[in-house]
Amino acid sequence: MDHSDSLTAIAKCEATLEAIPYSPACGPLLKGALPVFTDLESAQKLKPAAVQSKQSILDDMPMSSQQCNQAWTDLCAFEVGDQAWCPSPFMLWKLWTSITSACTLRGLSLDQSLDTQALARTSEEDDIPAPLFHAVMSKIQVDGGTTHAKIDRMKCILWTGSVLLQSRTSVASPMAVLDFLREWKDQLPEEWRKEATLKALQGIYLRPGPETIRFNEDGSSTQHIHVTSTQPKATASQTRVRNWHERFKNARR
User: Fold this and answer.
1) 78: part of which helix (H) or strand (E)?
2) Burial of 190 (0-12, 13-18, 19+ CB in 10 A)
3) Packing angle of the helix pair 130-140, 116-125 (nearest 10 deg)
4) Predicted model pTM
């Protein structure tokens, strides 16, 4: 067919399209993909079909491994067996009070290098998984090894303040500022308390009233010698508590 007499029309677009780099926040995405660890009893009820390991969850994240691992640390996420978890703020605060109580009973200062193995065993006695203890230490420590770690003072102060606000307040239920400051400082060494101020938590809290405070849900979120136990043989009840991981594993079979 002869097309020598055909007419060709060419349209020219004057507009341009610019591709702008977009990097979604990894923390909220990872948090949404993880089941929440509120207590041991609830964890035991998790159906096997819902079990997901850390690696399987991170493999589905549209971010780099570095971003995912940083978000994992910030959330204090942890893994027990093949199941990954994100701890609730209540569980994080429970763990912190367990740490401070253990240090007080043993005459330890949070400014010194701490025996993480011994403290992890203490957390297990309170039905808190040892992997969660180590996840928290990874977030707030300034230096650590396999058995000992030193806590970073300012990281710890900011983290505990944020966790306390998240665990105690909500949009519908703020708390008194004085009560918050008192409870926060009570769980910090005396020499740290002067740095536990609202100014240090800028962006983390909101003031719904002149005397109340709550967590800002749209702001920041959170985050040697091997010691062999020399304690006498545990009683049946103590063994039941310390072997929480065995109960967790058996409940999922």
Assistant:
1) strand 78-80
2) exposed
3) 130
4) 0.77
